[in-house]
Amino acid sequence: MNDKQKQTHLSEIGDQGYTVVENAFDAGLADEICQVLANIEKSDEIVPAENLFEGHSTVRIYNLLAKHAIFQKIAVNENVLPIVEGVLDAGCLISSLSSIAIAPGETPQPIHADDQVIALARPHKPLVCNSMWALTDFTEENGATRLVPNSHKLDHFPEFGPDIHYDSIAAEMKRGSILIWNGSLWHGGGENTTQERRIGLAMNYCAGFIRQQENQQLGIPLDLVKNFSPRLQELCGFGTYHDLIGHIDKQSPAQVLLGSGANFSSIWDKT
Ligand SMILES: O=C(O)CCC(=O)C(=O)O
Q: What span, in angstroms and rounded, lies between the C-alpha atoms of 64 and 61?
């Protein structure tokens, strides 16, 4: 992605709260990931959570970085990460990486904002920036993510409930496209009236100064993290934000937990 394309995506996120990067990854990778997910679902006997938020016919697989090496390249994708860094900043973190397979018969997920649990006056600076990778085509009929454009600018979040309706549009996209949104945007998974699953990867990021939704330092075995690229280790929270937030006795988590990152020096040491 060149700088002009990146700026266009950033201004769409600023204006309407979301953008779609088309042809961001190829069909071969989509197929490979779907196969990996199907294997995990079977071996780990994963079934729908059966609640209003996660759905009654939706299979979600969490903590994917711990489950297969293929996900390591998702988090650092060159068509997504630069946009996320533009929305948050380069100190951003992986908040969670999970799959969401909406099965036939699923009803609409209630509209919500991903930063809704954070009790700050709205609108505020972006704290969360999330993406949805279309591993299958996303259509209005099969449950494409529903969006309420411009809602990231509102001073309140949506009321959450099964019978609450907000006007929304379906983020229809071809397999290989990626939807990226400001975590304040109102949205939700759509209903699936087809006979096929809608499969997406929810690759979610947050600002480096707030807590990750899924605890990456506890969730991923350290022996695995040791083999991650330095950038992926940072994104998982093994670095510090602005050489300060997240330090342990003036050492970085990478030094303490991985025995690496020895050149860390705190912001205070630079004064
Ligand atoms: O599956 C989708 O399209 C959206 C899911 C979602 O918004 C969520 O679980 O927070």
A: 7
Cβ(198)–Cβ(192) below 8 Å:
yes
201 touches ligand 1 (CB under 6 Å): no
- 20 CA from centroid of ligand 1 (Å): 15
Ramachandran sector of residue 235 (left: φ over 0; alpha: ψ -120 to 50; beta: rest): alpha
**DSSP symbol at 145:** P
Per CATH, the architecture of 3-207 is what?
Answer: Sandwich (2.60)
Q: Which alpha helices (H) appear in 17-80, and where do they start and end?
A: 27-43, 72-75
Name the residue ranges covered by the structural domains of the chain: 3-207, 217-271
pTM of the model: 0.97
Q: Give every CB contact of residue 117 below 8 A, 6+ residues apart in sequence.
A: none
Residue of 145, 186, 213 with the most ligand 1 atoms within 8 Å of its CB, for mutation:
145
Give the contacts of 49 (CB within 8 A, at least 6 positions apart).
Answer: 55, 58, 60
Residue 62: which of 171, 212, 264 has the closest Cα? 212
**Cα 74 to the center of its chain, rounded Å:** 10
- CA-to-CA distance for 206 and 128, rounded, in angstroms? 4
- Residue-wise pLDDT for 213-265, tens only, equals 999 999 999 999 999 999 999 999 999 999 999 999 999 999 999 998 767 89
Q: Which one, of 85, 122, 86, 115, lies nearest residue 11 by Cα?
A: 86
